[in-house]
Design goal:
Residues 35-190 form the DinB-like domain. This is DinB family protein. Keywords: Signal. InterPro entries: DinB-like, DinB/YfiT-like. Helices cover 59% and strands 2% of the residues. The protein is mainly α and 201 residues long. It has a domain at 68-201. A two-stranded antiparallel ribbon has the order 1-2. A hairpin with a 7-residue loop joins strand 1 (161-162) and strand 2. Helix 2 runs parallel beside helix 7 (172-194). It starts with a helix and ends in a 7-residue tail after the last helix.
Length: 201
């Protein structure tokens, strides 16, 4: 009997000692705030736009509003995979002192439109969703899934780290805030398109 009890006890001990710290409720509320607010900002900007407005381009090198939405749908899906990878990798406290952002700076830095960044080809709009309605739905489904994850997870996101973003390491909480800031960046881009003098009325 002792031989059976000891391995079982060791298994239970390992399952709890591997990661006993849970997500801080303040961090949870912070992530939910930005994920929700940026989603809502986007849907408010898109409300009532016609096809000609959605597809208007200020110039040949600019994206239309519809293309911005497609980029967001593709990248939101990419963030989903990155969040899973980050959580699945387990704790890596050696990276704690290597973070490139302070929490209070991350939204402003990512959404800053004065800092121009060219996306990689994989995230370029290509019409893959076939219609604007499908594109928007794809974004909303993935964003809502991320919101539900944040509402319910006990994963210690402050002790999970990603080195997959181009500027350097972030922790799991910052990664999710980055996703929200990325949305806001492109919603601001949509508003710039709408402010163009030739934007269809």
């Amino acid at each position: 009997m002792k031989k059976l009890i000891l391995p079982f006890a060791a298994l239970i001990l390992f399952s709890f000692s591997a990661d006993t710290t849970k997500l801080n409720e303040q961090d949870r509320e912070w992530m939910l705030k930005h994920l929700t607010e940026t989603r809502n900002h986007m849907t408010q900007v898109l409300e009532g736009l016609t096809n000609s407005q959605l597809n208007f381009k200020p110039d040949e090198n600019s994206w239309s509003i519809a293309e911005c939405v497609e980029h967001l749908a593709v990248t939101e899906n990419g963030f989903g995979g990155l969040i899973q990878k980050t959580v699945g990798a387990g704790p890596n406290p050696v990276l704690k002192d290597s973070l490139v952002f302070k929490d209070e700076d991350i939204m402003a830095n990512i959404s800053d439109r004065s800092n121009k960044v060219k996306t990689s080809e994989a995230f370029e709009p290509s019409g893959q969703f076939e219609s604007f309605e499908n594109t928007l739905q794809a974004f909303l489904e993935k964003r809502n899934a991320h919101i539900e994850y944040v509402k319910t997870t006990e994963d210690d996101l402050r002790n999970r780290y990603s080195e997959d973003l181009p500027f350097g390491p972030v922790d799991g909480v910052q990664l999710i805030i980055f996703a929200a800031g990325h949305t806001e960046r492109h919603v601001l881009q949509m508003e710039e398109v709408m402010a163009h003098t030739k934007f269809p009325k």
